[in-house]
What does this fold into?
Amino acid sequence: MSKKTIALASDHAGVDLKASLISKLEDWGYEALDLGPLTKDSVDYPDFADKLTSTLNEGPVETGVLICGTGIGISIAANRHKHIRAALCQSATEAKLTRLHNNANVLALGARIIGEEIAIDCLKTFLETEYEGGRHERRVAKMS
It folds into this structure.
């Protein structure tokens, strides 16, 4: 059985947090696909949001993580794409609810807003929570 792959991308502000999350993913048995950047040289977050959304659109990767300074810009850029439901989360509760109710396929994080431990908790919860479906189907369908 192959490991589930999680795609990750960030801007320059998210490089360190992305590296920490990649390490955790590998510890948990996931394969991490790092879409960059690899340095802290200034880059534009919409370019990396687009890389991740293209990767999810082409398959077989279904889940992604985006990181910028606040998480706001990169989540806005990702949500321009019809197949993406990116949720900016600052707590494990938000990560759980966005999976349960919104079937979010991308977790967005703000590297300058939350600490590493909270980001790890958000990621773990996001990955472990299954979409509830049912009463939420109608609403999720309107977003896609």
Remarks:
- The chain has a mean pLDDT of 96.
- The longest strand covers residues 5-10.
- Strands lie at 5-10, 31-34, 63-68, 86-88, 106-110.
- The helical segments are 15-27, 45-58, 72-78, 92-102, 116-128, 137-143.
